[in-house]
Amino acid sequence: QAVVTQEPSLTVSPGGTVTLTCGSSTGAVTNDHYSYWFQQKPGLAPRTLIYDTTARHSWTPARFSGSLLGGKAALTLSGAQPEDEAEFYCLLHYSGVRVFGGGTKLTVL
Amino acid sequence: EVQLVESGGGLVHPGGSLRLSCEASGFSVSTHRMNWVRQAPGKGLEWISNIGPSSSAKYYADSVKGRFTISRDDDKNSLYLQMSHLRAEDTAMYYCAREPWLNWGQGTLVTVSS
User: Fold this and answer.
1) Are A73 and A92 in contact (CB under 8 A)?
2) Which of B22, B19, B18, B26 lies closest to B6 in space, CA to CA?
3) What would the pLDDT profile of B96-109 be if each residue is shown by its tens digit?
4) Could you tell me the CA-to-CA distances from B32 to A77, B2, B67, B77 in Å, in that order?
5) Which residues of A touch B102 (CB under 8 A)?
6) Which of A77, A88, A90, B21 sits most deeply, having the most CB atoms within 10 A of its CB?
7) Which residues does chain A have within 8 Å of residue B41's beta carbon, measured at their own beta carbons?
8) Are the C-beta atoms of A4 and A100 separated by less than 8 Å?
9) B55 pLDDT more than 80
10) Taking the C-alpha atoms of A63, A69, A74 and A77 in order, what is their torsion angle to the nearest 10 degrees?
């Protein structure tokens, strides 16, 4: 099965902008992978931020946006807040199979 | 309100079996692709299986193929995961989730240990 890769850790300053990426071992990530992004804080279940590459849920702050960038899925956080510090996971669809990335620990400092 | 509630977790010996349940409310499991995802202590998320609306379309991660079986009971509006030949590395919190990944349960903990 495919391997999905993410940056293990990133740091952003409060108010700053950061982009997390999600790559596929099978090649370029496209809209056909229906990229998803999840945020998880310690002790809690994951929460979906982005679905179908770019769509936000009603509860997703507008400072989070999804895109395709350089053959990868990307999650951009513009105007980071202290409460955004968390683990972020991407998920790609490969026909019926789903694969998570290893996660990015985002520090707001 | 959409809700997913997992149950059935617990302590099991290596080689043993366990059946997890996920009871849904606020929607019908028969009309959505439903997934099981697990997270080992201190580790990342791992997708392990899903079942499509037709029930014939079932997919598994290589790590559980041949040992775990996903199923669904539309009358009980519930999703199941039958786990057998359990190993220490199956120790994890197990979540069910509804596609398009709108909703997650709170998880049920499975511990495989002698």
Assistant:
1) yes
2) B22
3) 999 989 899 999 99
4) 30, 13, 24, 11
5) 48, 51, 57
6) A90
7) none
8) yes
9) no
10) -20
